[in-house]
Amino acid sequence: MSWIWLKRLLDYTLGLLLVLLFLPLILAIWLILKLLFRCNPIYKQERIGQNGKHFNIIKFRTIDPHTQLPTHRLSPFLRKTNLDELPQLFQVLAGKLSLVGPRPHLAEHVAMYEEWQKERLMAKPGITGLRQISTTKKLRFNEHLELDVEYIKRWSLVLDLVIIVKTAGLQLKKFWIALENKS
What we know:
Blueprint: H1 3-37, E1 42-48, E2 54-60, H2 74-80, H3 88-93, E3 98-100, H4 107-110, E4 126-128, H5 130-134, H6 141-154, H7 157-182
Parallel strand pairs: 3-4
Antiparallel strand pairs: 1-2
């Protein structure tokens, strides 16, 4: 049995559970943003994925497309808590993203990669990864890429599960901090 197949099974199973769990929240955010923007609340941006393949990543729109300004107080909250990335769960189900893997970069960033940095393009991009759980401090671009390459070299299903559990804990912490800052 191929490890890649097991990773895809893990992605699909957990992705489906997360979509079902968060579907009411996804629909509520979608509706609120639809009313605020009066246009499609889903934002698409071209990124570079596995093997240098171009694809569109989706997020909830947090900038008013008419004014190019953040809307309401909801926008910074969605970004701080990463709730703007919930639509990416549907991309996990479709097989375009993995739950765990290097975050996909813009084409102009990939064009500046050094040879060793291109190794990160060997893996399917993910919603979270080793660098998202490794530190709370701001990392330089090369440090991000070093952690992504390290993830690829160390990959295992156990590592993916550890990253998923740690990501869940960090996301809950971000959410509670953002709620406390609102009050």
